[in-house]
Amino acid sequence: MATQAFQKIYTKLNQVTKATCSVSATGIGNEELATVSGRLAQVVKIMNDSVTLQIFAGTEGIGTDAEIIFFGKPPTLKVSEHLAGRFFDAYGDPIDGGPKVEGEEVEIGGPSVNPVRRKQPSELIATGIAGIDLNNTLVTGQKIPFFADPDQPFNQVMAMVALRAKADKIILGGMGLSNDDYLFFKHAFENAGVMDRIIAFVNTTENPPVERLLVPNMALTAAEYFAVEKNEKVLVLLTDMTLYCDALSIVSNRMDQIPSKDSMPGSLYSELAKLYEKAVQFPDGGSITIIAVTTLSGGDITHAIPDNTGYITEGQLYLRRDTDISKVIVDPFRSLSRLKQLVIGKKSRADHPQVMNTAIRLYADAANAKTKMENGFDLSDYDERVLKFATDYSMEILAIDVNIDIDKMLDTTWDLFKKYFTKAEVGIKDEFMKIHWVE
Question: Please, which pLDDT band fits residue 119 given cuts at 50, 70 and 90?
Fold first, then answer.
């Protein structure tokens, strides 16, 4: 062993597996970075003086005489105002042709916020997507995933949310993005002229899968800087968390850990919670809101990844293709924002809760009418009307390509009520009827 300027160098490996290697070493820290034959690696396990490292690019071609150089520190990110408008890789190095960012060097993956510093979320985040804003309103400091099948346009929806959301900074953590997806995000942000508030950390399908494990922590470290130091409202978009979990499972399986449900590591819950619990509303006005994408395998909601995610997050948003209008909608039955009651009718118009509940009740009646029709039963006049209402409601409100503000969503829904129903069928309080049901 030799030491040079804080770096410890070793030249004898004890073991090499598909993704890891181990070496006898002392004074090494957990999660410390190193290079093995020039390839970046990270400490994942320390037992006495046996140190196991995961090699991000894999171990192919590495012999037991490889040179290991320990950096003496875990992964860090330099944080400053200069992060804004930039695209980085999983290590925080620029991939947009611009210069390296100078700033304060911060360890990534630190602890989540002390509960004493947390404030009950009370600010509404508008996305312009009615399936979210009207029926499942988001709140600053919330953590919520999109559950979507792999063929759903979830990255387009994430880009829409990024472009429409009223936030000071939007931080994208892209894991396992195809090159097309990466360029889609880049062009969408550039064309919309919002690059000054976008920061992106991207791992594409061409990069080693294990690198994905760094991306959410890079994104959240940048988010903490802007939320804490600058008191800004920060929205973090993480896509796709299923690919992040797959990378966790690759590492744990190659370390011969006994897998838990669905071949996931037993630490899955705590690994996800460590990330999602970074969502916070600070008393001084800064906040971190996390919207993630969790792709479902064959729509399986019981899989370990969505199952654990659902316990940690405050609701979920479902994307579904509505065959009646041939468009993707935010499913009103399976979606839920557990914090919406903190803001609807308080930070939005007073009639919001009543309009939301009535529309969902009528939409449910339409689903029942559809079942009757499919089973060959006669439809009543009311059945016919709720079916027409549901089609219009999907088209004008729920479709993800509709971009309007909350007042317009409410007014449009009132117009649909008046078009198809009587006052008694709608059943909203008189105080709102007098204002919004003008014959």
Answer: confident
| Cβ-based neighbours of 168, under 8 Å, separated by 6 or more | 197, 226, 230, 232, 233, 234
Spatial separation of the C-alpha atoms in residues 201 and 78, rounded to whole Å: 13
Residues of the chain with CATH 2.40.30.20: 2-70
DSSP label at 82?
Answer: G
Three-class SS state of 125: strand
pLDDT at residue 6 in the model? 57
Is 3.40.50.2300 the CATH classification of the domain at 2-70?
A: no
Top CATH class of 76-341 equals alpha beta
Please, where in the chain does CATH 3.40.50.12240 lie? 76-341
Summarised one tens digit per residue, pLDDT across range 363-396 is 999 999 999 999 999 999 999 999 999 999 999 9
Are 182 and 204 contacting, i.e. CB atoms less than 8 angstroms apart? yes
Burial 396-417 (b: 16+ CB within 10 A, else e): bbbbbebebebeebbebbbebb
Please check whether residue 267 is in contact with residue 213, taking contact to mean a CB–CB distance below 8 angstroms. no
In this prediction the pTM is 0.91
